């Protein structure tokens, strides 16, 4: 078979698997999108294990578990749900896992993994019975738009912090960072560079911006540069053996971790729903009524992914908001997610190289993505206070509470209460009431 025929055959297989033409994309665009998403979320390879180490988990195994969970779950999402949705152990929930469950409660990480597994079973039941999809369908279009904008604000806030453009302040909680810092200057340059490339419709704008800022950082000595082959390739691939199948399910049951399992379930449920809405909207996979392509398959994949994360030895897996970075450069199919998964597998060998891309280099892409997602604010009816106030609370509480789920909760609760006290109870879907009660319980237990 000639090289041309081989390439055509390969493209044909990918076409059948991912419906590239139907979604108006191609292999090159999907690969660029996948690489962009991976680079934007590669920090999880180093951040998650360091947090899990606080729960006395072995560091090498935590690194391996993080990478393998992200790889397997992202590939599964791409192949089964055909969505450009990358997955990895969740930020925020990993802190709850280590600092509260294992720290404050004093439980072993094995027992905490057991609780994660049980929450995954709960997810699966909710997904198979289509309850999770019913929850998504019950959310009014204005509130869905607010969720997308709120996630954009959250992503931008994370980027601003990562770049050092904003910093913590004891007096005002947050303040302007040191703009004379070379890292801040390079991040600001990255924002302008990516914005300019986007203006000229360069599809790899995000990826180019991240890499250029990283290389400039190396050139000016702001961040480390490779000095030997060991800084690029590692022959000592980390092993997952110390955490694989170490979960203690019966320990979680015997301890009576109802509140812990409930928290894992609620936070993960709405983090995923919020991210799913945000990414599919950015990828053009949500129709004008708010219906999401292959949402049932995405939710089932996510549920199984949570159980896989517990088996591998890491905290709850979640859909990553950084997937919007790939969606905004053209990622429209599961091929994007598969590319992300492959990149994670390669990172087992090239982990040192991935570490050379600093936070201030990925920060500009996150900030730009946040700006892109602001366009969904047009879905909100600002003339109706029963619509605009819940939307505002959804948007503002995501970055301010550093939780997508919390923003969702404030939006749900305020929507139901305002509609109720305004004499418009009929506009509230019954599931909205149920979810509001669940959120109120979750907030009370916080």
UniProtKB/TrEMBL annotation:
Question: Is NAD set as a keyword in this record?
Answer: no
Q: How does it sit in the bilayer?
A: Multi-pass membrane protein
One Pfam family cited in the UniProt record for this chain: Xan_ur_permease
Check the record and name the InterPro entries matching this protein. Answer: Azg-like, Azg-like_bact_archaea, NCS2
**Which GO terms label this protein's molecular function in UniProt?**
purine nucleobase transmembrane transporter activity
A cellular component term, taken from the record's GO annotations = plasma membrane
Q: In which compartments does the protein localize?
A: Cell membrane
Q: Where are the transmembrane segments?
A: 31-51, 63-87, 107-129, 141-164, 184-200, 207-229, 249-270, 338-371, 391-416, 428-445
Q: Does the keyword Transmembrane apply?
A: yes
Lineage: superkingdom: Bacteria
Which keywords belong to this entry? Cell membrane, Membrane, Transmembrane, Transmembrane helix, Transport
Task: Describe the family membership recorded for this protein in Swiss-Prot or TrEMBL.
Answer: Belongs to the nucleobase:cation symporter-2 (NCS2) (TC 2.A.40) family. Azg-like subfamily.
What name does the UniProt record give this protein? NCS2 family permease
Organism expressing this protein natively: Candidatus Avisuccinivibrio stercorigallinarum
Write the lineage as a comma-separated list.
Bacteria, Pseudomonadati, Pseudomonadota, Gammaproteobacteria, Aeromonadales
């Amino acid at each position: 078979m000639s090289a041309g025929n081989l390439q055509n055959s390969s493209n044909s297989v990918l076409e059948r698997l991912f419906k590239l033409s139907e979604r108006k994309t191609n292999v090159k665009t999907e690969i660029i999108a996948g690489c962009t998403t991976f680079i934007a979320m590669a920090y999880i390879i180093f951040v998650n294990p360091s947090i899990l180490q606080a729960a006395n988990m072995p560091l090498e195994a935590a690194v391996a578990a993080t990478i393998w969970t992200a790889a397997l779950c992202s590939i599964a999402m791409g192949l089964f749900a055909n969505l450009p949705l990358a997955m990895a152990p969740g930020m925020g929930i990993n802190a709850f896992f280590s600092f509260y469950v294992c720290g404050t409660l004093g439980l072993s990480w094995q027992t905490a993994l057991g609780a994660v597994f049980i929450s995954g079973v709960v997810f699966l039941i909710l997904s198979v019975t289509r309850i999770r999809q019913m929850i998504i369908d019950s959310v009014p279009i204005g509130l869905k738009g607010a969720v997308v904008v709120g996630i954009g604000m959250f992503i931008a806030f994370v980027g601003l912090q990562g770049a050092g453009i904003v910093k913590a302040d004891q007096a005002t909680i947050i303040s302007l960072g040191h703009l004379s810092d070379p890292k801040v200057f390079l991040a600001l340059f990255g924002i302008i560079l990516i914005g300019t490339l986007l203006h000229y419709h360069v599809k790899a704008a995000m990826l180019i911006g991240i890499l250029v800022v990283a290389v400039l950082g190396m050139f000016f000595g702001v961040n480390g540069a490779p000095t030997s082959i060991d800084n690029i390739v590692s022959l000592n691939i980390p092993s997952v053996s110390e955490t694989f199948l170490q979960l203690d399910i019966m320990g979680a049951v015997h301890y009576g971790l109802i509140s812990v399992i409930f928290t894992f379930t609620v936070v993960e449920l709405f983090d995923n729903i919020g991210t799913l809405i945000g990414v599919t909207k950015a990828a053009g996979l949500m129709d004008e009524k708010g219906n999401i392509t292959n949402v049932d398959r995405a939710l089932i994949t996510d549920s199984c992914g949570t159980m896989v994360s517990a088996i591998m030895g890491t905290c709850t897996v979640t859909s990553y908001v950084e997937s919007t970075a790939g969606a905004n450069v053209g990622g429209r199919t599961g091929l994007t997610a598969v590319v992300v998964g492959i990149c994670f597998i390669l990172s087992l060998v090239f982990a040192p190289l991935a570490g050379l891309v600093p936070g201030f280099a990925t920060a500009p892409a996150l900030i730009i993505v946040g700006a892109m997602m602001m366009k969904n604010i047009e879905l909100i009816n600002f003339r109706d206070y029963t619509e605009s106030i819940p939307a505002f609370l959804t948007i503002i509480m995501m970055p301010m509470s550093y939780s997508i789920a919390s923003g969702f909760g404030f939006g749900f609760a305020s929507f139901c209460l305002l509609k109720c006290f305004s004499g418009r109870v009929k506009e509230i879907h019954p599931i909205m009431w149920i979810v509001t009660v669940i959120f109120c319980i979750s907030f009370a237990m916080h």
